[in-house]
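A student in our group prepared the protein record below, which I am reviewing. This is what I was given:
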Amino acid sequence: MKFPAYTDHSRFTFGNNLKLKYMKSGVQLIAAERKRQVDVEGWNNLHDDDHDTMQLSGAAGCYIANAINKAYAGEPHTKKKRARFQYNYDPELDFLVNDGGRGDRQLSKGGWQDGWPWGKEWDKREKHDQMRSLVIAGALIAAEIDRIQNS
């Protein structure tokens, strides 16, 4: 493999079989995922236009929370998920409550639920590792930006 003069050699690593392999940058991975979404899944600009209430951003937030949780999954003291992406489906159910302890005030959980914007059959977060979740989130953000710019 030839190395162009401008190549950042830190992007190269040795794989398990000791062959030199190229590691794509984050931007390259996100662009490739967005291309896959369009070419394989058919989720092009016309499709994305139907998601005009920020669903693409909501799904990206869910994938980011999944990546954070995967980062802490192996820690023995971590029993609960550390990150969640939620939305409030009924603001009327929100109110401040006092726990009686130190005088803390917190928002009740009345109208909050998982932020996944589509049906459970489309939710594939758990099957993806940390890196894949971040790549998918980036591609969804790119799609959302394109949708907003084109509207």
Notes: The helical segments are 26-39, 45-49, 55-72, 130-150. The chain has a mean pLDDT of 78. The longest helix spans residues 130-150. The CA atoms of residues 96 and 102 lie 15 Å apart.
